[in-house]
Design brief:
The protein has 101 residues and is mostly helical. The chain has helices at residues 2-21, 26-53, 59-83. 72% of the residues lie in helices and 0% in strands.
């Protein structure tokens, strides 16, 4: 169980967290960040629960892995900010001849 859990944690963090720090341009980046958020929402707390319940994990390793899951969430939050669309500004109204808008 311990090896499978560590492999799962390592795979998730290695595949998702680094990519969230530099999201892709355009819609693909937003979709990737959304998928990362969904994965974290599904697995983040579950992984931390497994880590807390594993009596074989050394306390330092357990703390480091929990911090990695927490850092994963922070990376996703930063990526969500990075891929937010800019606030739409109102279109300027072109002036008509004679100075009337």
């Amino acid at each position: 169980m311990k090896n499978a859990l560590l492999a799962c944690v390592a795979a998730v963090l290695c595949l998702l967290a680094p990519a969230c720090r530099s999201p892709l341009e355009g819609g693909a980046g937003a979709r990737f960040v959304s998928a990362s958020r969904s994965a974290h929402d599904l697995w983040g707390e579950r992984l931390k629960g497994y880590l807390a319940a594993d009596p074989e994990l050394a306390p330092l390793l357990k703390d480091q892995l929990v911090k990695s899951v927490d850092d994963w969430e922070l990376a996703i939050a930063a990526a969500e900010e990075a891929v937010k669309p800019d606030v739409a500004l109102p279109m300027p109204v072109p002036a008509l001849p004679g100075g009337h808008p």
